[in-house]
Structure formats: structure tokens, C-alpha cells
Amino acid sequence: KPTSLALQPVITPELVQGRLHLKCSYSPNSPEPPLHYRVLWSLLSSPGKREQVHHETTQQTFSYVEIDGTNLHLGDTVFCTVTAFKRDSPEQQSLPEDSKGFYAGIKVTPLALTFVLNRARGMGNAWDNSCQTLLVFPPGRQVPGVPDIALSACQVDLLAGPCSGDSCAAATVTVTAVTDLAQDGNHVSLVSAQPLAPRDLLWRAYTPGHVKVTVRDLPTGNCYSFTDPHIITFDGWRYESYEIGTFLLCRSESRVFEVHIRQWDCGGHRSASACNCGVAAQ
């Protein structure tokens, strides 16, 4: 009966003479006489279906396939299936063993972000929101430089290194909603990426996924101090103030922000009266 040799095939990427290859590695976990291996490479053509792209018989404990943009492309999920047999009895094969699917491309996560504009804090409006490499554009119009969001960087480098799990390189970009103090409705933008200098045809036909960013525009709270002074708080309460001096009008408990006002004698004849004459904000 066919038996499992616990070959445990694993796919890793590797540059071979400057060209991108996938390497399928496998080996029996117990001493065996010299074996031959049949390696079948396939890609995920649709959910639950695979399409064969290459196969070979070898005595090596590895097999290569090139991502050449013809049979295999960036963005494909690739599998290798390995069976083993002895040279003098090729009809007696071990059970086929599958590798995990290897996604040969750039994964973007998360796929969606949502901001509430009046709660957004940070340095969004100090970052560059006119990126040409990491593109930002509204759906349907590829126009860089949407003012509702900003990116922490216009360019990120995926540096080659040893693969860990299913990742061989990673980079992070922070997205921040720009607090423009304008009530201009909700906005949806997309953040996408493209190679900075695509020297290889392989990259010219490939675009990583995009991130959908929704900026929800909620009304901003307001408070007032006006004329002699009438004060209306953020929650709508009304007060009168007739004192002379400099006072703290409001202070944020979550960030460094406060407003001071100065009230001075308005020269009331019948009763004490004070008017706003100065303001300072931090």
C-alpha cells in the first residue's frame, strides 16, 4: 500500500542568477535508500481549483520553478506536490504530499480603515499627502494627493532577508486623517502602491492590493464667549460673566490645548460690565 514518508514540502523564494524562483524543499524523516521524486507545481486558478504549471522527476531533495510572468506571475498562490518512489519500482509511489500555498506577492493589511474626523489626533497635516509612489486617490479617479488623509512615508523599502513564516519582508505606513476643521461630509480614499523603478517586466504587470480608507465627518463641538461676555458651553449651557481679569475659558483633558480670555471694564454706568478684549490659545 502507498505510505507517507513525511516529506513535508516547503516553498521558499530564492534568487537564481538574478531571477526570481520558488524552491520546493522536501526530504524523508528516516534513512531511506536513494529515492526519486516527482514534483508537481500548481497554482490556485480559482477558489478550490488548481492549475498545473510544471512537473519534473528528480533525485534532488528540492525543485525550482521560475516566476517568469508567463506560467507563473506575481500575485499567484503556488503549491508543490511531491511523491517518492524507488528507482527499480516506479509503480510503487508514496502518498502525494502538498506544501502550504505560497503567495508570491505583496499582501496589504488591513484592507480597510475608518476614521472619525473630529476624534483624529496626531501629525497628519504635517505628513506628506501628495505621494507619487504610495498613491492615494478617490475610487474612480487616480489623482494623488487627497487632503483628507496623509501618509507617514511616500516610499517604503522591502529589504531582502530570511523568510519567517509566510513573510520574507515587511514595511509599515501609518495613515492619519487630516483635521481640516471643515464639515465637508464623509470621504472614501484608496491607498495603493507601485514599484518605484520597475526595471523588470515582472513588476510592470503587477499591482499590490489597496487599502480602503473611510473618513467620517462628524459635527465639531463649539463653545463661545462674546460681547459683555455671554458664555455658551460645548453642551449648550448659557452663562453670564461680569468679572474683570484673565480667565481660563477651556482646556482639553486629552491633549495640550487650552484657551485663555481677558475681560476688561466696558465702562458701564448703571452696573458693573465687562467685555472680551483679548484671547490666547495654546
Automatic annotation (TrEMBL):
Signal peptide: none annotated. One of its GO terms (cellular component) is cell surface. InterPro entries: Dev_Signal_Modulators (IPR050969), Ig_VWDE (IPR057885), VWF_type-D (IPR001846). GO terms for molecular function: signaling receptor binding. It comes from the Eukaryota. Transmembrane segments: none annotated. This is VWDE protein. It comes from Elachura formosa.
